[in-house]
Amino acid sequence: MTADPLVRAPVSPPVSDDGHLVEMRNIRVSFGGVHAVDGVSIDLRPGEVVGLVGGNGAGKSTLMKVLSGAQVPDSGQILIGGKVASIHNPRDARLYGIECIYQTLALADNLHAPANVFLGRELTARGGVLDDPAMEDSTRKLMKRLNPRFRNFKSAVASLSGGQRQSVAIARAIQFNASILIMDEPTAALGPAETAQVRDLVRQLKDEGLGIFLISHDIHDVFDLSDRIGVMHQGEIVGVVNRADVTTDQVLAMIILGKKPEDVTKEELAALHA
């Protein structure tokens, strides 16, 4: 039995000799003399979730815009699978298997799930007409793997729940061979059940070998999903820590004080709850 060419199999991402999927080295971005990102280096491995946290204006979104091609850095390098990548726009990023799922999801609300999954990359049949049956069949098979409870293939996505909309956005990203996902606040404004659903999706993608940068203000999301946590403060990287080695208070201190855990005093930790 031959594989269906329209159904995306779990990825085999490019990996460097030392096991890295992505390496961002000494990235700098300035706006009018303000260093939004100031010499930041961070990496990502296959099957890993790296949480990226920091206060408003810390630079985490700008850093991820560099990786997604939405922002060209002033200096620095990006390596994908150990090789220098040339990323100047989102199209370049997609060629390297990088997809970004923004908080807004960027879905076409008036279209159903299959039309959104193939938006801008529609399948056509003979005569150039849209091959709607093929796109629906492919979307159904992909959703069966991602979210077996998804049933609303004919409904406009505007009528779907937040968790279902996230499923559609994720399906669109991985349908076209993404191996690197940037997820921006994936559980924002979701209820407990929908949040649990999205967290399950993230874990499944991780199990399939994707590398995920997770931008979030929700410290519970970060600790629940991340293997490592990168903390940014005023454009700089305070540190990247193993989630299992730190407490939420220590990460909050990194976010607020801009200090590594070993440099934070007991008094400073206590003051966070004052």
Key structural traits:
274 residues; alpha/beta; Rossmann fold; 9 helices; globular; disordered N terminus
Short description:
With 274 residues, the chain is an alpha/beta fold. The protein is built from nine helices and ten strands. Strands 6-7-8-3-9-10 form a six-stranded mixed sheet, with helices on both faces. The chain has a four-stranded antiparallel sheet with strand order 2-1-4-5, covered by helices on one side.
Give structural notes.
With 274 residues, the chain is α/β, with parallel strands linked by helices. It has a domain at 22-106 and 179-271: P-loop containing nucleotide triphosphate hydrolases (Rossmann fold). Helix content is 32%, strand content 22%. It is built from nine helices and ten strands. The chain has a six-stranded mixed sheet, with helices on both faces. A four-stranded antiparallel sheet has the order 2-1-4-5, covered by helices on one side. The N and C termini lie far apart (64 Å). Residues 1-11 have low confidence and may be disordered.
